[in-house]
Amino acid sequence: MSREARFRVILAVTFIVGLTALILMPSAVDWSRSFSQIHDKPYGASLVYELLQNDHANASETPRTVTTMDVPLADFSRFGIETQGQTWLVINAMYEPDEVEISRLLSEVDRGTNVFIAAHLGRQLADTLGVSVRGFQNQSIIYQYMTPPDTETLVNVEFPFLAEGAVDGPTVTLDLFTSYYFDLSRTEGVSVLASVDNQPIMVRMQLGNGYITLLSAPLLLTNYHIWNMDLEPATSAVMAHIQGETILWDEHFKVGRPMYSTPLQLLLDNDNLRPAYFVALFGLILFIAFKAKREQRAVPVHLPPQNTSKAYIRRISSLLYDHDKKRVILDKRIRYLAHQLELPDADVPQLEVERTSEKYNLPDGLLGEVLGSQGNQDRSDAEIFKLNKQIETIYSHLA
To answer: What is the pLDDT at residue 176?
Structure first.
């Protein structure tokens, strides 16, 4: 084995071992927040989305429809999206709509749309709804951490209402998922659904024909806490208030919504496309290292020249035949036959005709009849056909 071959084998083995180690290497847990239904990481919301799909809208086992919305509420009418009687669900770290979005939100709720917002409210929306966001004393904001919330202060969360019309909900001891609560400046049409130390963290407001539900603990509706069986009473109590036959799942305001300005960002962000990109890049480097050196160019293949005279004659004959020039074709065949027999084109002496007929053992009078018909334009189709057969007979004797 040559030195270059051994080097290639060593390089290939090293590449395979490195690629295998890269594939088998355990990846670090991504604790970043996204609240998106497309993410399976701890602070994604794929499990919440799946639970909503598998749930039923009411006691009659009516199937529930969950639709992902990638546009803001203000653009629903532009895309022909109807929200009346449906529930628009927003789960995010922060929800700060502008004035146009807030106006459309209140208008849709007044028409009968139900809105569930699990997020930190922006100041403009909070002032519009008549609530103030207050912070608990000596509590940390868990959703800002990138590690599991296993060292936070335990508090008692009371759920006075499990569902519409139900009372005496559970009291759950759990980690505080938020550092703030809602200070209500209005009480008419407002129901407290969950509280900590008598401070509401989940409220429902009746506005016209619909209602708005506010939850200050968005992390409660993430994969990590849905899987935590100790929190099952709390998550069940919260999700019981997400009602309606049709849920419009918001993906437009997600903090973890992927934004790609270049195709390379999409490749590097995807866990499956990223290794494929690096493998292709490494393979390109190997190709440049071993195959891009200058090599002798291929020797061109020169084909022998072809005799195109017969093809040309065949093409001309086809054109004449298509234009009903059978007599012209026949005259050309006769002249060509005379040329092959080394006879003059016209006025062939009888002695030459007899000598040529005897030379090629032709039937008596056949050659003279063919040559004598040259230039006759009054021949019928039957005579043309007969002369053509006679020419073929002469050619058969020449072969």
So the answer is: 55
Q: What is the 3-state secondary structure (H, E, C) of 232-285?
A: HHHHHHHHCCCCCCEEEEECCCCCCCCCCCCHHHHHHHCCCHHHHHHHHHHHHH
Secondary structure (DSSP) of 93-140: EEE---HHHHHHHHHHHHHT-EEEEEEEEPHHHHHHHTEEEEEPTT--
Per-domain boundaries in the chain: 3-25+273-290, 46-259, 309-398
**Which two three-digit tokens encode residue 251?**
């993906």
Report the SS3 class of residue 66: strand
CA gap 163, 240 in Å, rounded: 6
Looking at 3.90.1570, 1.10.40, 3.30.2170, 3.40.50, the CATH number of the domain 46-259 comes to 3.40.50
d(CA 87, CA 24): 43
As given in the structure block, the two tokens for residue 1 are 């084995």
CA–CA separation, 134 vs 128, rounded Å? 16
Output the pTM of the full model: 0.58
Residue 171, exposed/middle/buried by CB under 10 A (0-12, 13-18, 19+)?
Answer: exposed
The Cβ of residue 310 has, within 10 Å, a number of other Cβ atoms equal to 8
**Block mean pLDDT (10 aa), the chain, length 399:** 76 79 75 86 90 68 82 81 88 90 91 92 91 69 38 61 51 63 83 84 91 89 82 81 89 74 75 81 79 68 81 79 75 83 78 84 83 77 83 83
Region of residue 218 (left: phi > 0; alpha: psi -120 to 50; beta: else)? alpha
Q: Tell me if residue 46 falls in helix, strand or coil.
A: helix
CA–CA dist 269, 275 (Å, integer)? 11
pLDDT of residue 116: 95
Give, in order, the Cα–Cα distances in Å from 380 to each of 224, 330, 334, 386, 389. Answer: 100, 12, 16, 10, 14
Structural tokens at position 328: 């012209």
